[in-house]
């Protein structure tokens, strides 16, 4: 026998309020027909997330949660969404009543209520500080790892060594070009020694990368020396013929390169 299910259409406002209070995220409703789009309702979780009581904030615009380090660009996106009556999800750095910052994943929706012929905005605030600080830590680590993989060793005012280690893909080359051009621009180095001893595979990427770097340094009035390749190999290798044509100097070791530079000055 089929069970009959009766849906009640008479769920009271009070019941809905209670349900919304149990939602595990802050909920606010604002009324854009009033001056400055103020808060007309907040749930219990909003008080927990922000530290403010409903009494303190009812009638205010939600921007009181923003502070010194809140991204103005992200706030502008919210402003635009409100103007265009669009929904949006943004991550904003907000501040609790005690001044402690937290990352707020704000989902904001325009909701039209036909029975009132009126538009409201609903905001759902989720504290995502834990996830955000993980992301920030991961980004810092990535940046540090990439700096470690392309270190610069200035050994005099005019000479800088760049020891390359591991595998170099096109992404790492891009980083090397950018860092070298910024470095030459700031330091006026005349000679760059790129040591390839730690390179696992002298593949096409490395080959074209060195040629491009040579060109870049030439334009900037600096010079490239490559070490870590035996001069005999450099002379015999068909692949390295391009380097010879461009008159890139080779040395087996950094030590020998430095001696070579000293002898020619
Ligand atoms: C329903 C709703 C919820 C909002 N919740 C937040 C919030 O939790 N944190 C915040 O920084 N801004 C929030 N805002 C955005 C601000 O109220 C305001 O719209 C924003 O700062 C852009 O306007 P302004 O440039 O005039 O300040 C919310 C806006 C609406 C409409």
What does this structure look like?
The chain is of the alpha/beta class. 42% of the residues lie in helices and 25% in strands. It has a five-stranded antiparallel beta sheet with strand order 2-1-5-4-3, with helices on both faces. A five-stranded mixed beta sheet has the order 6-7-8-9-10. It has two domains: 117 residues, 2-Layer Sandwich (Beta-Lactamase), CATH 3.30.450; 116 residues, STAS domain (Transcription Regulator spoIIAA). Helix 6 runs parallel beside helix 7.
Give a topology summary:
Elements: H1 13-22, E1 26-30, E2 39-42, H2 44-50, H3 54-57, H4 72-83, E3 88-95, E4 101-113, E5 118-127, H5 129-149, E6 153-154, E7 159-166, H6 170-187, E8 191-199, H7 204-219, E9 223-227, H8 231-236, H9 241-245, E10 249-251, H10 254-264
Parallel strand pairs: 7-8, 8-9, 9-10
Antiparallel strand pairs: 1-2, 1-5, 3-4, 4-5, 6-7
This protein binds flavin mononucleotide.
Flavin mononucleotide binds next to strand 1, helix 4, strand 3, strand 4 and strand 5.
Percent of residues in helical segments? 40-55%
How many strand segments? 10
**Could you state the CATH homologous superfamily of the largest domain?**
PAS domain
What is the overall pLDDT average?
A: 85
CATH topology of the largest domain: Beta-Lactamase
Query: In CATH, what is the class of the largest domain?
Result: Alpha Beta
Radius of gyration, in Å, reads: 31 Å
- Based on the structure, what is the oligomeric state of the protein chains? single chain
Strand order of the largest sheet: 2-1-5-4-3
Total domain modules: 2
Strand content: 25-35%
Q: How does CATH name the architecture of the largest domain?
A: 2-Layer Sandwich
| Uncertain stretches | none
Unique bound compounds: flavin mononucleotide
Largest sheet: 5 strands, antiparallel
| String of helices and strands | HEEHHHEEEHEEHEHEHHEH
Number of helices: 10
Shape: rod-shaped
Class by SSE composition: alpha/beta
């Amino acid at each position: 026998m089929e069970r009959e299910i009766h849906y009640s259409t008479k769920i009271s406002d009070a019941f809905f309020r209670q349900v919304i209070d149990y939602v595990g995220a802050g909920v606010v409703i604002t009324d854009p027909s009033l001056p400055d789009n103020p808060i007309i309702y907040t749930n219990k979780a909003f008080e927990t997330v922000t530290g403010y009581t409903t009494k303190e904030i009812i009638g205010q615009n939600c921007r009181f949660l923003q502070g010194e380090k809140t991204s103005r660009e992200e706030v502008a996106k919210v402003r635009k969404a409100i103007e265009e009556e669009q929904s949006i999800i943004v991550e904003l750095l907000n501040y609790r009543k005690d001044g402690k910052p937290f990352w707020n994943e704000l989902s904001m929706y325009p909701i039209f209520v036909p029975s009132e012929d009126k538009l409201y905005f609903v905001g759902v605030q989720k504290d995502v500080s834990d996830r955000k600080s993980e992301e920030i830590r991961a980004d810092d680590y990535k940046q540090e790892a990439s700096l470690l993989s392309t270190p610069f060793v200035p050994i005099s005012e005019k000479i800088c060594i760049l020891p390359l280690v591991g595998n170099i893909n096109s992404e790492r080359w891009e980083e090397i070009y950018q860092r070298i051009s910024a470095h030459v621009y700031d330091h006026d180095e005349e000679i760059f020694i790129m040591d390839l001893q730690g390179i696992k595979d002298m593949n096409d990427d490395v080959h074209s990368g060195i040629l491009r770097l040579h060109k870049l340094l030439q334009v900037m009035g600096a010079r490239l020396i490559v070490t870590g390749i035996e001069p005999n190999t450099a002379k015999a290798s068909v692949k390295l013929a391009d380097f010879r044509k461009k008159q890139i100097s080779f040395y087996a070791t950094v030590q020998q390169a430095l001696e070579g530079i000293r002898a020619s000055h």
